[in-house]
User: Fold this.
Amino acid sequence: MGKSISGVGVEDLVGAGLKIREAKEFELELRDAVINGGLNPKEVWRSITARKLLKPWHPHALHQLIYYSVYSDYDESIHGPPLYWFPSPHQSRQTNLGRLMESHGSRLLGALYKDPVTSFRLFQQFSVQHPEIYWSTILKELSIEFSVPPKRILDTSNKSKHGGTWLPGSVLNIANCCLQPRNLWKEQDDSFAIVWRTEGYDDLNVEHMTLKELREQVMLVANALDATFSKGDAIAIDMPMTATAVIIYLAIVLAGFVVVSIADSFAPKEIATRLRVSKANVIFTQDFIIRGGRRFPLYSRVVEAFPDRVVVIPATGKDVAVQLRDQDSSWIAFLSSDFNLPRSYQPVYLPIDSVTNILFSSGTTGDPKAIPWTQLSSIRCAADSWAHCDVQAGDVFCWPTNLGWVMGPILLYSCFLAGATLALYHGSPMGYGFGKFIQDAGVTILGTVPSLVKTWKSTNCMEDLDWTKIKLFCSTGEASSIDDDLWLSSKAFYNPIIECCGGTELSSSYIVGNLLQPQAFGAFSSASMGTGFVILSESGLPYPHDHPCVGEVGLFPIYMGATDRLLNADHEEVYFKGMPKYKGMQLRRHGDVIKRTVGGYLVVQGRADDTMNLGGIKTSSVEIERVCNRADESILETAAISIAPENGGPEQLCVFVVLKTGFSIEPDVLKMKLSRAIQTNLNPLFKVSFVKIVAEFPRTASNKLLRRVLRDQLKLKLHQMQSKI
Assistant:
């Protein structure tokens, strides 16, 4: 246990990196903040952050000293997780959700409504119990224009459809909604829709595109698509998330085609699988990817996977830097196909449940699940960002991601349907260049994944940059490390990190933070608006609401925006079969095991099945093992598991190996070979953290591999090793 905050003195402050004079001044202010907070650690920390006593430019060691000293004697089992950010009554009323509650709270909740902070949980429960009222209000807040309005918000008359039918009868084009001026916010056509910078040009001004220019570019590409393809064709995008990629995405949807999302990190085999499953007719890609000053081939990977037509966009300059096949075309040649066509474009209006985007689960046994996004999905993800991440007109929103992952489309719709500016860095987010772009572009909302934050912190690459315009951070994909989050939040005077956890098939987060509740590092403060769930015991019975517990999540089936079909799997079997009923509802499977703490905060504990999360990408043990079993002739069989570090952070891939009789090999050599095999055949972002050679695997009487036992054994060993340090 560390030193308590009352015992921190000048010597400690100097040891944490302050000069003697700074330390003396800091100690005086610290003593005053401690007295003001009284004996309550939460109030002491609130007092320290409210005074902005800790500065973004202070050494991280100082931030660690103060935070951990404040909470040194804190008992989470009694008080819930330590809190680091607290909503103010005034600021809460300026948020999207706070403004909505102030306008409608008294009418909807009656005398129970007090203010946005006090009444948040009641309002969230109301959104679950009265989805028609909540979602009709949200549709008015976003830029959703129907060519044919819905007959109603939700139709539950078809009892065979667990989630009901949302917005029945409505017709629209969601891309067209993204391209219209937001009169609600009096935003003009000359406002910036996209700002970006290309790696290597970090000292030049940030480039920008107005909403009018974006609309014109999207229409240009939509005309070219019409001149080349047939309505309803599936058109793949496998390229970094550049301004051009965003234009192509919107044009495909505007013109009534279907986007097939493929991550630019995939190996040819994975690209081919997704193109085959989606039946894509063409793929848009780049000649190269520019990352960290290096060029990585992309076109060559795509053509190895796809014999049909490829349209190639140059990573730099006007001309592609590779020799194209006869059936392929450059970006310039493709656009010239609409040279004589009109400059305007009539959007293709389709029913609300029309598929606009095919995304994929990140790896399960066999083919990845092909998950169709409809226009409803786009509305849901934008609504959650509006409510929980407080995306507003005038915000500049950046999240280093890719259109091949669910966060790419989420970011796009979250910006354009709320009137915010989309910020893109054409290059690696790992270093100073990206951080300088965040500063220069005036980013106000920055999305991350925990492994990226860990890199920024460990390399100290964001030193001397000003991120104080950031009003909040977002984080998803992995479990967060408390200390990494402490570092990140400190860069913006401890503005909050909104933790998000959901799924591609949900088109949103089912648990998430918000600006109306105090936030704790690495924890989720609530279910998302409109989302209901229970936590199930091992016997399948729900724990009481607000009761501290650990168990598998069972989602309420009435979930606006969640899938009602899969293209290559049985939706009913995947998400509903075998799940218990709750109050007459067939619960929906998600697969997470979560912990509910004292005070109602939520922490993800892992997966209920043998799926793991590596670098924000979900994959299965079986898929990893299939590759590992062929990595070296000495291997008889492998078992892949993942574990999260004790102090939080991304899951680490661990592989247990049984060798063939008569073979021997060093674990470090095997680790290198396994990593190489996985990166070549599955995903170059995966890496093996630990290899253990064992004589045999624990199994059930029916010979089923007990990965859970291996996971528990490894956790115990690592805990023992940590205790000795």
Remarks:
- The chain is about 35% helix and 20% strand.
- The chain has a mean pLDDT of 92.
- Residues 610-724 form a domain with the GMP Synthetase; Chain A, domain 3 fold (CATH 3.30.300.30).
